[in-house]
Design goal:
This protein is α/β, with parallel strands linked by helices and 498 residues long. The protein has 14 helices and 22 strands. Helix 1 runs parallel beside helix 14. It is globular.
Length: 498
């Protein structure tokens, strides 16, 4: 049984974006590499497969983007204002959104290596495209990009995983599916391999290095309740059902230092009737992220958050938690006909929890679980508070807010006065957990004494210390790629020099 795995120099645990980048990087240094994936082929790729594919990257204009998107045409460039996203802006966003708790060394690696890593991915066969549909609004005939995001993977998460796996196979990397790793093997000099379960059999696979890139614990209800707190076990999971914290538990068992915010996670507004785990047919479209342009109300019929506090990219990952904290753990997003055509494509899927009405009073009666009288009063007071003298501009923080409300709306305040009215039911969808293990600047996992554990590396969601409380949209895939390549480079060099 063991012979099918050969004698790999490097074992990568996982098969998502971070794992693939780690495997490809290690292979570049001449190491023999295998990837071990718990999921079957049709579900392989971890959370990466379920993403929409946005990647946050430093760029100083369209010429930088053309290194990632070589087929970006002159016409597309002329018809768009891509702006730029500088190193300083990325630092500012990471600092501000994590309340300045992000690990400065890890943040520096993430930010300064972002562009070169995506260029490297492109050379490996990953394709990218400009995010016209998701990150740009057409203003005065020209697309204007917002929120520091201009680039996404071609074909979303599925396209990314497919192309990375093709690259791995082309480079001689074998991927073994339905092969969950259950234990790290320890020797006198550190980690010497892994134990896997194949059916009812347990098999040891020896190697010179192991890279853990098997995700967080978001798909483990018990761990969510234990670390995130009450009701988190009841939240829905946006992505794979296979991220159950196994890699983290294995690492902790061999003395890895827990690091980062174990009580925090990335969570979003997610369709209230979505299945318990991600659905690859629907993909990421259960998300509902146009809330900055409408209002959100809870079971009491009241607004509970500043929907326009910031650009979506900077609030969406924390507002899932806010929805979970509402009575019965749901909310309704409400829009009128002036805004409905501008909603993101995910609002137009067949699998959507939606009600529509010609009056606010009629809509109130259709909002399941909501106090209709309070809702009507909420809308009336909101409409009266909108600063209608300030022009609406969806591409920037326009300052069109409200006056006199206990919970203000800071931008994109739009009176709800034009029929038909629409409302979309949402709950909390967990994307990934923030807690992980401590790594050094070479991707090596550190023990509780702050020393590297020989032969053990980590990447992707398993890296703790990057995100606290919140998250700049598109940073997950980028960090997976950057730290995956870092771990792969370090492991590849280490094992080929032995």
């Amino acid at each position: 049984m063991e012979s099918q795995f050969g004698n790999p120099d490097v074992i990568v645990v996982g098969a998502g974006n971070a794992a693939a980048c780690a495997a490809l990087a290690a292979r570049e240094h001449g190491a023999s590499v295998i990837m071990l994936e718990a999921a079957p082929l049709e579900e392989a790729g971890g959370n990466s497969r379920y993403t929409a594919g946005a990647m946050r990257v430093v760029f100083n204009g369209p010429e930088d983007l053309k290194q990632i998107i070589p087929d970006l045409t002159d016409e597309e460039i002329a018809g768009a204002d891509f702006g730029s996203y500088t190193v300083d802006q990325f630092y500012d966003d990471m600092g501000r959104l994590t309340e300045y708790k992000t690990d400065p060394d890890l943040a520096e690696i993430l930010i300064t290596k972002s562009l070169e890593t995506l260029i490297w991915m492109r050379k490996k066969g990953v394709k990218f495209q400009a995010s016209f549909g998701r990150q740009a609004h057409k203003i005065d005939g020209k697309f204007k990009f917002f929120g520091g995001l201009a680039c996404e993977t071609w074909g979303g998460g599925e396209g990314l995983v497919e192309l990375e796996h093709k690259a791995a196979i082309r480079d001689g990397i074998k991927i073994f599916y339905e092969t969950p790793v259950i234990e790290l093997l320890e020797g006198d000099d550190g980690i010497i391999g892994v134990k896997v379960r194949i059916g009812n059999k347990k098999v040891d696979i020896h190697s010179k290095a192991v890279i853990l890139a098997s995700g967080g614990f978001e798909s483990n209800a018990e761990m969510r309740a234990r670390y995130l707190g009450p009701n988190w076990d009841l939240a829905k999971v946006r992505g794979t059902r296979f991220n159950t914290g196994g890699g983290l538990n294995m690492a902790l068992k061999v003395g890895a230092m827990p690091y980062g915010q174990w009580s925090g996670c990335h969570s979003v507004s997610w369709d209230m009737n979505a299945p318990p785990f991600g659905d690859l047919v629907v993909g990421d479209s259960y998300q509902k992220h146009s809330y900055p342009y409408g209002i959100m109300i809870n079971a009491r019929g009241e607004r509970f958050v500043d929907e326009g506090a910031d650009i979506r990219n900077y609030t969406y990952a924390k507002y899932g938690k806010v929805v979970l904290e509402q009575p019965s753990m749901f909310a309704w997003q409400v829009f009128d006909a002036k805004i409905s055509p501008k909603l993101r494509d995910e609002y137009r899927i067949r699998q959507v929890t939606k009600v529509q009405a010609n009056t606010i009073e009629e809509l109130a009666e259709k909002l399941e679980g909501v106090d209709p009288k309070v809702f009507v009063k909420t809308v009336k007071e909101f409409n009266e508070s909108v600063m209608t003298d300030v022009p609406l501009n969806l591409a920037v923080k326009d300052g069109r807010g409200t006056k006199g409300l206990s919970i203000p709306k800071s931008n994109w305040a739009n009176t709800l006065d034009t029929a038909p009215f629409e409302a979309y039911g949402v709950t909390c969808g967990v994307t990934f957990t923030f807690g992980g293990v401590k790594i050094n600047n070479h991707g090596q996992v550190e023990n509780e004494a702050g020393k590297p554990i020989p032969g053990l590396y980590a990447a992707g969601e398993m890296v703790g210390g990057l995100f606290y409380y919140n998250y700049p949209g598109g940073t997950g895939l980028t960090s997976g790629a950057v730290f995956g390549k870092l771990a792969g480079d370090s492991a590849g060099i280490a094992v080929t020099q032995k």
